[in-house]
Specification:
Elements (H helix, E strand, L loop, with lengths): L9 E4 L2 E7 L24 E2 L4 E7 L2 E6 L3 E3 L6 E3 L3 E5 L16 E7 L3 E6 L3 E2 L2 E2 L3 E5 L18 E7 L2 E6 L3 E2 L2 E2 L3 E5 L22 E7 L5 E7 L2 E2 L2 E2 L3 E5 L6 E2 L2 E2 L15 E6 L5 E6 L12 E6 L4 E2 L4 E4 L5 E6 L4 E5 L3 E2 L13 E2 L3 E4 L21 E5 L2 E5 L4 E2 L2 E2 L3 E5 L2
Parallel strand pairs: 25-29
Antiparallel strand pairs: 1-2, 3-6, 4-5, 5-8, 6-7, 9-10, 10-13, 11-12, 14-15, 15-18, 16-17, 19-20, 20-23, 21-22, 23-24, 26-27, 27-28, 28-30, 31-32, 32-35, 33-34, 36-37, 37-40, 38-39
Amino acid sequence: MRRRIGTALAVALLGAPLATLPVASGAQAGPAHPTMVSTNPVDWTPHVLDGTVWAIAVVGETVVVGGDFTTVTDSAGANRVPRRYLFAYGLRDGRILPWAPTVDRPVYTLTAGPDNTVYVGGWFLKVNGAAQRGVARISLVDGSRTPGFNARINWGDVRALAVVHGSLYIGGTFTAINGVPRVALARVNAVTGALDTGFDARLAAPGMRRARVEDFAVTADGRRLVVIGAIRSAGGVPRNQLAVLHISGPGAVVLNWHTDTFNAGCMAGFDTYLRGVDFSPAGDYFVVVATGRATGPTLPCDAAMRFDLAGVGLHRPVWVNRTGGDSLYSVSVTGPAVYVGGHQRWMNNAYGKETAGPGAVARSGVAALNPVNGLVLPWNPGKSRGVGTQALVASSAGLFIGSDTETLAGERHARLGHFPLP
């Protein structure tokens, strides 16, 4: 599961002139970077002492962090602070903020909201002791639930969020929102949480236990959405693990864009092996990353793959970069680079089988790829592997990284790091 959330860009909310909403946030394409980020992370990020960081959102000068942790400390390790599943710190100084809303289960996704708020998605049932299943909007001033936002899922979890032109897109494992059937993907009013009843992608996974949205990404102009996960059809037409939708109108229109790349199987038992997706800042291509525990020069497993958006009909990857058997979970496309994260040991490793095959390049836990040809770039900060990098966040401040490990660029950065732009 990969989570990456960019810095919010505010626009006027249609029908609510007193509120402002981010155009590019959540799973929407982040800002283009002028160059690659530094390999030297900033020294002031806090340390997360247990669990995993699954999600990061940059909201103005505040960084919000979500996951399944319980305790954090400042960068010096001097002050331990209890924070279960959510905390926030200062972007420029790493100061742990007193902001401390309570949720009763892990947080998997975050995105900036209007008027100094943040949308939170995950497996939780309650927020600040009140029933608010799966998704909530929380004030960054005092940690309170935002009055009037009442979206709720029926069961399962929320794994992806994005705010686009006054609407909040929600993806996960649910089968209803606000009591109305919606399988794994829905659109609600960003202020009230009211379901947009005209929007229904009709995702289905016949033969599986349930359909599931693992992740989605939205172009910066808010017109196209690519969704990945345990999917076999969308809008009544076959779409195996990936579908591209037109979303700027009143409904969800499945585009005549499809691929047979994911018809090939990885290891048995995966209902989907796709884990993360991100659009380029210009919206002309997207990159998906996969697990799968299967190797070989033709399999779409344990790999990063670029697809161009232009054209209709059958599409195949422009390039594929394979790890040789190690999972990739997260991806962030910034223009100069495609950053990918997981528990990989190598990239450019099409012929490796849990080994370094011919042409393999060592890259532990995080790597940067050339967006044109997919080959690994020299950027190589190094990272301890663990289960893997679950969050890559591109913002105007650089690249943020969240995981379950403690070493980054040869330094202690427990589960959280920030690579600045030079």
